[in-house]
Amino acid sequence: MGEAIIKGILDKELTTPDHIVASDPWEARRTLMEQQFGVQTTASNMDAVRGANIVVLSIKPQSIGKVMPDLHSNIDPAALVISIIAGVRISTLRGGLYHDRIVRAMPNTPAQVGKGMTVWHPTPYVTATQMAQTEAVLGALGEQLAVDDESYLDMATGLSGSGPGFVMLIIEAMIDAGVHMG
Fold first, then answer.
1. Is the pLDDT of residue 16 over 70?
2. Separation of alpha carbons 140 and 16, rounded Å
3. How far, in Å, CA of 35 to CA of 105, rounded?
4. Mean pLDDT on 119-147
5. According to the CATH classification, is domain 2-181 in 3.40.630.30?
6. What is the C-alpha separation between 62 and 99, in angstroms, rounded?
């Protein structure tokens, strides 16, 4: 999903590739992102976040314990952190990153083609400018909606996150039935 965000941001011309630094432990993925998007890449999460105005966390939930210690002393206190880490609550992020300006967001699969729905929730420390930046970044993936309570994010994820997958399963079953019937 991190690559979908990069693509969306660049497609909507919210910034230029030279203002994006992506980190990935795998050299092949870094090379692919450099070639596909023209962005800078690094294997170091610390290097990726230094000096950033916006940090997007797009990792697997089980990796959070390894990643947060690298980040907490390197994220600028004024930076906006947007997390799309499934199931990781804002309280966990605040505690592990020692950071307050956090948005928790959950884009769904259609976001990969700019047709998604992302529900998000900010901490009270996110500024008006950062709220507008969040709307722009997440809007590059499709529709976006801020919710007043983080628990609504969990509810919406069950519907909008899983819904497209179920629809695709139904469509696939209909195709299979059509082929079977001739």
1. yes
2. 14
3. 27
4. 96
5. no
6. 20
Any idea which residue has 């432990």 for tokens? 25
Least confident of 73-87, 102-116, 151-165, 168-182: 151-165
DSSP class per residue in the chain? -HHHHHHHHHHTTSS-GGG-EEE-S-HHHHHHHHHHH--EEES-HHHHHTT-SEEEE---GGGHHHHHHHHTTTS-TT-EEEE--TT--HHHHHHHHT---EEEEEE-GGGGGT-EEEEEEE-TTS-HHHHHHHHHHHHTTEEEEE-SSHHHHHHHIIIIITHHHHHHHHHHHHHHHHHHH-
Position of tokens 């420390």? 125
**CA gyration radius for the chain?**
17
pLDDT in tens, 151-172: 888 777 666 666 666 677 788 8
CA angle 18, 118, 44 (to 5 degrees): 40
CA distance 46 to 72: 9
What is the rounded distance in angstroms from the CA atom of residue 72 to the CA atom of residue 4?
Answer: 25
